[in-house]
Amino acid sequence: MNSVYKVTIYTDTAKIVFINRSHRFPNDLLLMVSRTLDFEDADMIFGRDILNNIFVNRGDTYLALVNGDSLSDYSNPWDEFIEFQIFDEKSPTRKSIVERSKSVEIEVSSIKTEFIHDMESFATKWLPQHTESLLRLFTLQDLKAQSFTPVYEIAHSSSLCAVFPENIICLCALLLHHFNYINEFHYNKVPEPFWNSTSDLIPFDKTCASFLKAIESEPCVSKNRQVIEINRKASQIFLTAGAGRKEDTVIYQLAKIINKYGFTKFRMEQTPFFVKFTNELAIDAGGPSNEILIEAINSAFHPSTQLFVQTINSGKTYFIPNPDAQEEINSVYSALGVILAIIIRTGALQNIPFAPFIWKYLAGEDILSSDIAEADEEFKTLLNHLNNGFIDNIKWTATTWDHKNVYNLSGGNDRQVYKEYINLYLQEYINFRIGLIKNQLQSIKNGFQANTGVDSHKFLCGKVLSWLAQGGGNVSVDNLKPVINFVGFSNDIESINQFWRVLERFNNEQLQLLLKFITTLSRIPNRTIDQNFKIRVYRLECNNPNDALPTASTCFKKLYLPKYESDDIAYRKLLYAIQFCQTMENN
To answer: What's any GO biological process attached to this entry (predicted)?
Structure first.
């Protein structure tokens, strides 16, 4: 590589002065400065900033001119654009203290075969979700660091290395690191449209924090939390036994309250209401407010309320608004949008089984045929046939979400779909499907936007909304450990270790039940919002502890744990408690 030079300094410190050789100095030059030939932990200097002086220490320093289309026509860009001179920092007189080596040559043929193999693997197998998985391994601090080392150490030990060559993983990690470093420290040197089109390369904690900041900047209408009363038992009776009316469910009761006071009334930093459960003794110190959000979401997706229906999908459970819902219940969908805004603002994550394209609709993104296919197995089959050229028997028609009815599109049922019109046909199909539920979707969106006060943002997308409302989905021992504190166990380390051993035996669903048992939440709150979220575990002093069950105080996120003789006893007792004691009264 002819654009690399090695400079050897023989004094403690020296100054390198760069001089412009050309009247047409290119702005797309990038100078990399490193202490190693492989440019580990390199400093990067852009454009005309290259002409600023730099200081280097004793020993070897490597300089490289890279990037920029302007380099392609020159065997040695140094000769064309820049020269450099070395000065002893302690002497006013210029002094030659550099051993200017020949250009460093890299033997390309020695790595060509491996490089081609790696690039073919990358080009044919690497998918956007692999980039997303890799990106989620790094913290924002890792990606902002000048050194690539922290990102490299995480990348080369990731599970992706079992699927792709390690060089590919590290190359992608390097690109992500450089991209985010430039985004953080040289944002204004890159055109804004470029950043807008590459938001999926920015870590989620940064994009989410930016969107949350926009929400927080909207003024709160009221600082006083509204006292509301919910008849939870009536809701439970309807959902379990079918006795009563769907208007008795929590989602309908809460929707009535939200529509009564207005969407913006519930725009507050904290949960905007104190909850009183009819004929229950619970006092809202945080627990009932969390429970009401959980029960509102659960009842919204319960078949008895007829607000959402499950899509035909063999892989996952996805729901869409009921296409047959009457217009008069759009107010319930609007209230659901307000509830989503409250969940995101407060960080009280929930399991919300929307078909993924619904999050995209709420964010104002375009809905693609792949989005519909993700939620609908039969449409996925149709899409595969079209993509593979099997179009002989496909007519210009579309089915409803339940596939029970067929409707003619613009071409009519006699018109065959020809290859040159596949994209037009798919767009009409998508428009037809979305049109069946558009009123409901728009009602949810209206409620969400009215409560947040934000209808557009550079990082607003479906994935961000889904992440802020639901988190990653899994509750693991690894992400429980940072939020659990043990109180009064300083002389009983074995009980702490026993607790973690028991949790290692739990599956994801059981860990979610444990979290719900202690806090009423099914997801760990968004740490970007609630950095102080903690669960505290206390010793439960009692006679015959092996016969006692753990108890919890959901309002204060406390677990009281008896001292069990063995892991098996602890496992059985804790599992029984979390499976059969899931309301505040049972706790």
So the answer is: protein polyubiquitination
What tokens appear for 509 in the block?
Answer: 């669903």
- 470 found inside a domain: no
pTM, to two decimals = 0.67
Q: 277: which strand partners?
A: 230
Other beta carbons within 10 Å of 346:
20
Q: Cα–Cα distance between 19 and 24 in angstroms, integer?
A: 13
For residue 271, report the phi and psi dihedrals to the nearest 5 degrees.
-55, 125
Which of the residues are catalytic? 555
Coil, strand or helix at 130: helix
Check if the beta carbon of residue 340 is closer than 8 Å to that of residue 444: yes
The CATH number linked to 355 is 3.90.1750.10
* Residue type (1 letter), 67: N
156 CB-near residues (< 8 Å, 6+ apart): 166, 169, 170
Yes or no: say if 396 and 478 are a contact pair by the CB < 8 Å rule: no
What are the Cα distances from residue 9, in Å, to 14, 93, 331? 7, 16, 74
> What is the rounded distance in angstroms from the CA atom of residue 339 to the CA atom of residue 263?
10
C-alpha 473/C-alpha 355 separation (Å) is 14
Helix (H, G, I), strand (E, B) or coil at 372: helix
Same domain (yes/no): 293, 325: yes
Span 139-164, pLDDT tens digits: 788 888 878 888 888 888 887 888 89
User: Helix 166-185 crosses helix 112-125 at what angle (to 10 degrees)?
Assistant: 70
User: Facing residues of 13 across strands?
Assistant: 57
Q: What total number of domains does the chain contain?
A: 4
User: How deeply is 260 buried, as exposed, middle or buried, from its count of CB atoms within 10 A (0-12, 13-18, 19+)?
Assistant: exposed
350 in the same domain as 235: yes
Domain assignment of residue 378, yes or no: no
Phi, psi of 410 (to 5 degrees): -65, -30
Q: How distant, in Å, are the alpha carbons of 45, 291, 515 from that of 270?
A: 44, 15, 20
Q: Which domain holds residue 172?
A: 111-202
pLDDT tens for each residue of 324-364: 998 889 999 999 999 999 999 888 888 899 999 999 999 99
386 Cα distance to chain centroid: 32
For the chain, how long is the longest CA-to-CA vector? 96
- The reply to whether 504 falls in a domain is yes
CA distances from 24 to 199, 334, 551, 563 (A): 33, 59, 75, 77
- Report the distance separating Cα 17 and Cα 15, nearest Å: 6
Residues 117 and 245 in one domain: no
